[in-house]
């Protein structure tokens, strides 16, 4: 779907789009809230003052549980997928390592398909398998499209949302004035999510785009058909023509909230409403439950993950004081 064009793209997207309608996302909200609350309870059990890596204890487990629930990934397969999907987004792997990882990815997807074919559930994997098995006169999925679509859903749902939770918590803790606006209600948690997506998009650069026709740019340059394109969402989101002279500043009260973090046009991220719901819920519950939350290391010592695609930290060490 991510790289398909025209009628093929529409057919593939139509198949999964209903799962992301406003109604379906609203139905998922109680489950997302309950999953976030469970993680908060686990955090609350950590002894006062002990350093916790929030990337490990919140940013990862919440999206993995949500997409695992949506796709019907059995609990015992979730950790393997996490490792494999991390590698998919890691642009520092050698070609051999990347190829070995792809093989593992397909093996795990086939295993998931076999599990769900034997025991279908109320999940998207079972729906996609049914769409494949119906062989509905070209309207369903081909044998290759079934695993590819599942890989897209699982990888898109795993890694990206992790980075937005990480960046939103980090930026709030590193900018007490901005956090104050969120806590006082002068800015909503949804505003915090949008500004994080703008200033620190989870996908800095998106590879795997190719020009289908010649594309003439406003400055006269031409990208010729077939050339690869690396979409630089991070740069676009901080362009002064769009967001003014203070485009680099993190400002949750910003009036113009537009950004390209979810892409643009017919390929616009299908999971955007789900991702927004997850991150806003994580922030709301985290700052409610731990009013004294603080970074456990100077902000400038946190290291980015070493890939040109994703935009997160290797670790997010915090102290979880409950008192304000
Ligand atoms: C904050 C988290 C997320 C970010 C930053 C993000 C970002 C993106 C981006 C940049 C694209 C490409 C858009 C383009 O080519 O113009 C995309 C596509 C897509 N995303 Fe997301 N995504 C996120 C979460 C999710 C989630 C949770 C899911 C599913 C559960 C998902 C499913 C998809 C799918 C299926 C596509 C392909 C759409 C198409 O090609 O028609 N994403 N996403």
UniProtKB/TrEMBL annotation:
This protein's record includes keyword Oxidoreductase: yes
Alphabetical list of Pfam families matching this protein: p450
Keywords of this entry: Heme, Iron, Metal-binding, Monooxygenase, Oxidoreductase
Entry keyword Kinase: no
Top-level taxon: Bacteria
Gene3D superfamilies: Cytochrome P450 (1.10.630.10)
InterPro entries xrefs: Cyt_P450, Cyt_P450_B, Cyt_P450_CS, Cyt_P450_sf
Coiled-coil stretches noted in the UniProt entry, renumbered to this chain: none
PANTHER family, per database record: CYTOCHROME P450 YJIB-RELATED (PTHR46696:SF1), P450, PUTATIVE (EUROFUNG)-RELATED (PTHR46696)
Family (UniProt): Belongs to the cytochrome P450 family.
Protein name: Cytochrome P450
Source organism: Nonomuraea monospora
